[in-house]
Amino acid sequence: MKKVEDMIKKVIELGTRSEFAKSVAILSTGTFIGQAITLISSPILTRLYSPIDFGYFAVFVAIVSVLLIVATGQYELAITLPKKEKNVTGLVYLTWSISFITSALVFVLLLIFKDIFLSSFKFINYSLVIYFIPIAILTYSLYQPVYYLGIRNKMFKFLAISSVLNIISTLFFQIAFSFTPLKAYGLMFGYFLSTVLVFIFLLLQLSRKKLINFPGLSFLRDNALRYRNFPLFNLFQPFAATLYPFPYPSAM
Questions:
Q1: Residues 51-60: pLDDT tens digits?
Q2: Is the pLDDT of residue 234 over 80?
Q3: Cα separations in angstroms, 160 against 24, 33, 196, 214
Q4: Among 66, 122, 128, 129, which is least packed, fewest CB within 10 Å?
């Protein structure tokens, strides 16, 4: 029995010494703190916003989540793979370029089919949502490659901080907007404004290490072809998983 206990202690000691275990511990700590803050703040938000507000917010998040899968072409998943840093930055800028195009296309389509969209999703009293959806898609699309670039460069401490910062800033913006005339959109504002803040935070950390220098247009084209399997084979599964279950607007 004592031998088993000694073996377990050795395994734990080796785990705590390994770089991988430390990285997991750092990221887990950030996630745990963020979830704890979310849990504590829930009673505050439920007093400030109605169930209807939360219902429309859930539909908004679901729509953005579905479109986000297409918005980046899933190229951000390839950021951890290349050996050359130029290919890495090429993937980052490629993902950003696709996200700008996708967000602009979504915005144009929402303007054209505004009435159909608002009536289909029961957003009649939330008409500004047609502007918030493309903005939210763009902000998250810009953030995702930066996050994976942080993982590649083992910036786990900053990723953990960004996780906590995201939760705190989301809560701050949602509470602040609940006291303004735009209260109906307060949950949505907090959703994407916090992402902008976290994106800027991680971008500044990466800029200090000079990890996001523009590699040139040729690298964008080459990387789009080199890693084309990511949009070809990695789009359907997460897209289908996000579609089900989808919040049903008429149930609210």
A1: 999 999 999 9
A2: no
A3: 10, 9, 16, 26
A4: 128
